[in-house]
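Dear colleague,

As promised, here are the two records you asked about, laid out in our usual form so they can be pasted straight into your sheet.

NAME FIELD: protein one
SEQUENCE, THEN STRUCTURE:
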Amino acid sequence: MSTTKARADSLSLLLFTLRSGKLMAINLLKVSEIIPCPPLTRLPDSHPHVKGIATLRGNSLSVIDLSRAIGERPLVDPDGGCLIVTDVSRSKQGLHVQAVSKIVHCLTSDIRPPPYGSGGVRSYITGVTSVDGTLVQVLDIEKVIHGIAPAPLENAPTELSMEEAELLGNARILVVDDSQVALQQSVHTLRNLGLQCHTARSAREAIDCLLDLQGTAQQINLIVSDIEMSEMDGYAFTRTLRETPDFAHLYVLLHTSLDSAMNSEKARLSGANALLTKFSSPELTQCLITAAKAVAQQGA
């Protein structure tokens, strides 16, 4: 593995600011549009971090007060600024920010992991990078949304056939995701199926895990990996596996908060076996059954 160098993927980031003026970023693929902050309808029983509801082309859109959601000071003009309309994990929401700065292009290898264990704003950051010598923090939008409207932990189907239960029982799974929220959702589904799994918070940590378990009774045969990760994203991780003889055969399911349709070709070119949009426990279960069947046929 040490002799294999992953090819870096490019990434477009939308830079924006809150009151502090510090640059923050979100993956441009998660942004559907940017609009001036429209009049909002405030709902009396809504979460305190939800400013209200906007009407966008006849559809209702929840608007998140991003400053409050991540523990920053409120904007100077609470009715000014603009909305970044995001499309993440099958839902749309508006993020109220001070201003949008610009779009920049970088390599995923240029984004470094944040210091783990930090509180405050840093706990909502999935990575950091530098743009023209200025530090930029990449927002963990999934964590922001989860903190306001936690996704219900669906129970995966328990009425599995004996064949499906046996196939899943033979799956030795590694879940890779740099979002703690997303990682917990996947692990919950697996545990509900009676399955144990190994976890990693980055592609490099996953590679170390694969090497440690190689040749043991727990040797991994199925990987569920996020796409958006610091340093090495899911595409580069998959290509690295395909270029490494010991791991080229591994079944790889890429699990993303982005619309799968936008990423299907890149997933195919990277060598991934399947692609799934987060988060649906029943759909993840069906993908795992399909993967377990493929793994069993491979070993036959």
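NAME FIELD: protein two
SEQUENCE, THEN STRUCTURE:
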Amino acid sequence: PPWPNVHACGTLRQAADVVGDWMKERRKRLDRAKRVRPEIRMAIEYIRDHLQDELTLETIADHIQLSPSYMGHLFKKEIGKSVMDYILEQRIERAKSYLLSGRYRNYELAEKSGFRNYSHFCTMFKKYAGMTPNEFKNKHKSLVTP
């Protein structure tokens, strides 16, 4: 999971184990990311830098100077998911960090995360996070900075 759930731990040792496991998984993901082709790494950087923008396979492929179909094929092969699924996951992760920051209203953070429609944002957030944005915020209330 993207966020370690230390609240369910009974002891400090259990919480440390949960965080340790989370960090190991994070390191594995970073190691996998280092092994991707330079073109795909460029695509990922472009996506992260432009999450709030309208992103299409064509605009990303144009940026890295590959055909959309070839880039889509390479991306799926290297990352294990489609470009659009990756973009959605990244947008949800950004929305989670905005929710935890407590600086934006939900409709504002939805737009800052790249969603043009608040209803679509809520639907996708629930699909990927397993809960609504408000449920996420309430569950992690102790982490939310006022």
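A couple of things worth noting about protein two: The longest helix spans residues 12-34. The CA atoms of residues 10 and 16 lie 11 Å apart.

Best,
R.
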